[in-house]
């Protein structure tokens, strides 16, 4: 699933959307482009690494409001670079950190924790 932001949003709207997406999804990748069409090499690498371990994850295309997303995400992670990966609302890192975790055989564990929680929890609507 991919969340596409409205390009008419202001900073407070972006911050609210970031909060909502992080709360509502176990694994989130804020990226340039989308899962099917990444718009930079780092985003493409992050999608490929996450896809090795998780079938479904949320992606957010930050390009329509790049400056606003950078500011909102920096408040969560302390990083202003994109892409940024979050698991259970916690910042994991960009594509370089994902690659390091993969090389140490830790990325699957990091992502699987969130996936296991989402498949074993009961949702009441």
pLDDT averaged residue by residue: 87
Determine the CATH superfamily: Glutaredoxin
Helix content: 40-55%
Strand order of the largest sheet: 1-3-2-4-5
Number of domains: 1
Q: From the coordinates shown, what is the CATH architecture?
A: 3-Layer(aba) Sandwich
Strand percentage, roughly? 15-25%
Element pattern in H and E:
EHEHEHEEHH
CATH top level label: Alpha Beta
For the report, how would you describe the main beta sheet?
Answer: 5 strands, mixed
What is the general shape?
globular
Q: Cα-atom Rg, whole angstroms?
A: 14 Å
Structural class: alpha/beta
Q: What's the end-to-end separation, in Å?
A: 20 Å
Can I get a quick summary?
The protein has helices spanning 11-24, 41-51, 66-77, 95-103, 107-120; strands at 2-3, 27-31, 58-61, 84-87, 90-93. The chain is α/β, with parallel strands linked by helices and 125 residues long.
